[in-house]
Specification:
The structure is a homotetramer of 314-residue chains. Chain A has 314 residues and is an alpha/beta fold. Chain A has two domains: 4-113 and 302-313, Nucleotidyltransferase, domain 5; 123-296, 2-Layer Sandwich (Nucleotidyltransferase, domain 5). Helices cover 38% and strands 21% of the residues of chain A. Chain A has nine helices and 13 strands. Chain A has helices spanning 38-55, 90-98, 107-118, 183-196, 202-207, 217-225, 229-253, 269-282, 303-313; strands at residues 4-9, 13-19, 25-32, 62-66, 69-70, 77-80, 85-88, 102-106, 127-132, 136-142, 145-146, 257-261, 293-296. In chain A, helix 1 packs across helix 2 (90-98), helix 4 (183-196) runs antiparallel to helix 7 (229-253) and helix 6 (217-225) packs across helix 7 (229-253). At the C-D interface, helix 7 of C face helix 7 of D. Chains A, B, C, D: One of its GO terms (biological process) is glycolytic process. Chains A, B, C, D: Keywords: ATP-binding, Kinase, Nucleotide-binding, Transferase. Chains A, B, C, D: Belongs to the ROK (NagC/XylR) family. Chains A, B, C, D: It is an enzyme of class 2 (transferase). Chains A, B, C, D: GO terms for molecular function: ATP binding; glucokinase activity.
């Protein structure tokens, strides 16, 4: 068993890579997701697969990690608003186009699997991976296996409710976790501060060229690294919601490790230190139970490609 | 394999039964839990096991389902406030006393396993069992196996937080789910109503002989069955919190079925109808995903005995 | 002008006193409120007035301070659930029975007026009086005058909402201030603690003879005075809600002093110190504005009689 | 007495008018607020007063309505972040420059007084005026007089807390009313919706030229008038918080009328209908008490000038 291809299908880009059985990416390619026509997306996927498979004829299978709800047979995407897919039989379509066996998986699950096999989750049979980016994604490893749930739709951590009647979420509900603990939540926090208390947010506004709307994650991280009190407070707020949510997940799942990925995780200890504090203060039964590790992910954005490629191998 | 013994070790009583491999209880016995001396509890367990094993010499193993945190080796109870146990090596103690192999499991897990094998969860490989009593207990079945978590302490559903800075919980935190969705929560709701708005709670107070403190679960269920508006409102409030919490668990775990047990589940459809409504209104991605069944448990309070006995068999 | 009679008409007792123009009570009498028949209440009021007026023939007028909504003409009680009165023309009735001019006022307003004229509010032209007992009552002094509002129903402080979807209140709403900051709220807090965390509430339970339901205000105060951590935490929680509410009232009314009465105020500095801390931390514009005094009331339960008697004088 | 000048001193502009004793503005002038130098602001005020007083030599006094905390002597602005003033002796400065008596009042109070004397509050001795704009301002009329509070800082309605640990406010606290019920809150609501659920907010985004940041109040009002469901939902959300807050103020102040001004009030019945519904559902004691009128202000942005001018007359 040798090479497989992993493809990460997101709302803005399709990224693919040839992956060997050590989880190393041999070669990578990316294309923009064709936003005008959801039908076209299968063709773009086929195109990048053909390109890579042409150069690496040993490739034996393809794993697609895609946004949205993937069905229990790992064949059809039930619902992916960012890709404008509904009941899309993507496995069959791509297999027809590329002539290789295809496995489909939710991108959060693919990422979790990648980290579990080759990243920060190695050696952890009970692991929860959380990606903090635009929203919250991730996956659950139980006894060394990916726990997809009965219908393949589990691990939608971003949408358990943490505040009754709280902030509006794109899913149609209010108070979802990802509205409080994600890269977007950090930006939301900083812009809010800049709008209602510009005097406190001087450095953030400076980095945002005077406009709250131009404050993005990297500026907040930079200001926090400089010791700016406002930026640190934004991190602390988001870290408290994150730590509380991890404590909630520990009550339910009791993992041995949390692996934190996504754009927000690039802040490293700036995020992790207050997350650990908040987790420790919120965990039920604290003092009477072993604690899970809380770690930053190791594979970065490539985790989805690596995980999808590995899932195609199994 | 034939007979095993299951023991349900709770804060007030020790209940044991000989169980055959169809999950039927052949004979049952119970003793009060010796509250004065936690050391004594092992002796009471040994006593009921000896009694039953004496009559059924084919018994090959013993399963203990016990309140509290059970360690990953299923040997030691790390922390069980109701039994006054800390780091109690109960497997070794009971094995020494009865001369049979002993397996220890958390009682919520034992109940979930019992329902999964012989009750309302039969045929469901991905199932979540929730018991609504004094608090909330339960267990998680993933791919036909009990998911105990890394340290054996998972499925503490009662303690994920649903209201920031909410009602005080016995675990030391505030806003835990079991303070809003449990048998106790129903009673709390009804007594509160009777205290602050006695005119609205006339029937409830009548059934409680005039005192809010004498309103218990059965009275509330009775009044609700009679159509009393106040009692129905109490059920609706608790059902909304229950349904919301199941929706949260679906976002995380995506089970094929929820099995609802515990004292509150005896209200049947009075509880289940509004729970299903609330669940349907709260589930993220509703309309784009298959729905789990929500069912009442079938084995009643014996589920823990049956489950523990079966776990001893594996 | 010389002597007048003040009557405090509550749900359990009718208390009356002859008051001189220094606000001193010359003689006092009380009767139980006839709960069986609301009609009877006017007769009991007349009875105590006649008794006192018989001994003090100089008495020139009667002031009634009564629970409930009093209309703008200070004649009719629109709604008083504790007295079972609806649109009760109590001024006319009592005048007919006693042959003296009668003025009717809400009991919270009477208390505020009493404290304003002869108690802790002397010399304060802008004062808010808050009584913390079963619920919250009180009154508002603006520019030396009682501010009754347009319809006579103002100063129902207990029923502004402090928690969306919060604790149920007897008024039919949820989240009213008096559910968080009152004598009852303190008891609620302590009993909750005793129920869910009996180990923490050992001293409280001891004083309550082992039962949460037998923990009352005086026991909590006693335990707090002994330094009991659980009792102190209950006080702190209630004091935080109280201080926050006073800060809210300062944002709206900007009084020069708050006078705190009612049963809870008997705890003195045990209550007042954390209330002042919470107020100072919550006040909008803190650091840029003069602070009001926060003081304990001086007249005790007699404030209502003194205030009602004085209002009859005007 | 005849003509006086009213000046409305805000963070962006200084607007002044000559007002006759019928509350009619005879002539008006405005200048930008000099943002670079707070000292300059007194000169700009003097400049517009001189200009008007030169043309109307009968002018006998000047009223300044200014943002910020005005002291009890109506002479000094204690704190006005938008004007960068701290302990600014503005009365003395302007009197020295213009040679006319000057009265200083908070702009919300001036507006309330204007509406009370010549606008929607005419004939209402107990009135609360609320302006819903960037934040919430307003004033309280008690028994026909402006209730300024003990230190002149009352009626800061925008900063009583309606959500514990809620949205961050520019005052440094969280959960202030103006974060939920104001023109800014409406815009916040609409932009949030457009960001997290662009599909639902199609018409709003269209009017905002595709960008959430370009959705402003007028666009939301326009969409709501067209019947757009998303815009109507935004209005409903803000109206619910507004109506709840008015109910809270009724519990405390029991006014005969609420007069609603500020930019948001331009939406008229679109706002008022759901505000009245929410008020009616939230008022404590509803059904047992007379209801206040809830009306739109009549004088528009000029209310502050008219009120300040009239206060100079007294």
């Amino acid at each position: 068993m040798g090479l497989t291809i992993g493809v990460d299908v997101g709302g803005t880009k399709v990224a693919a890579g040839v992956v060997d059985d050590d989880g190393a990416i041999v070669e990578k390619v990316r294309r923009p997701t064709p936003s005008t026509d959801p039908e076209e997306t299968a063709h773009v996927i086929a195109e990048v697969v053909d390109l890579l498979a042409g150069k690496y004829p040993d490739v034996s299978a393809v794993g697609l990690g895609t946004a949205g709800f993937v069905d229990e047979d790992r064949s059809t995407v039930l619902f992916a608003p960012n890709l404008a897919w509904r009941d899309e039989p993507i496995k069959k379509k791509v297999e027809g186009l590329v002539g290789l066996p295809v496995v489909v998986e939710n991108d959060g699950n693919a990422t979790a699997w990648g980290e579990s096999r080759y990243g920060a989750g190695r050696g952890q049979d009970f692991m929860v991976c959380i990606t903090l980016g635009t929203g919250i994604g991730g996956g659950i490893i139980v006894d060394g296996e990916l726990n997809r749930g009965r219908f393949g739709i589990g691990a939608e951590f971003g949408h358990f409710r943490v505040v009754p009647d709280g902030r509006r979420c794109g899913c149609g509900n209010r108070g979802c976790w990802e509205q409080y603990a994600s890269g977007n939540a950090l930006v939301h926090e900083a812009r809010d501060l800049a709008r209602v208390a510009p005097a406190m947010a001087g450095r953030l506004l400076e980095l945002g060229e005077g406009s709250p709307e131009r404050i993005h994650g990297p500026q907040i991280t930079q200001a926090a690294r400089e010791g700016d009190a406002a930026a640190l407070e934004c991190f602390k707020t988001v870290a408290q919601w994150t730590g509380q949510g991890l404590a909630d997940l520990s009550a339910i799942l009791d993992p041995g490790a949390f692996v934190i990925g996504g754009g927000l995780s690039e802040a490293g200890d700036l995020l992790l230190d207050p997350v650990r504090d908040a987790f420790g203060a919120a965990l039920t039964g604290r003092g009477h139970r072993p604690l899970p590790d809380i770690r930053i992910a190791e594979l970065g954005p490539a985790a989805g490609i690596v995980g999808a490629a590995d899932l195609a191998r199994i």
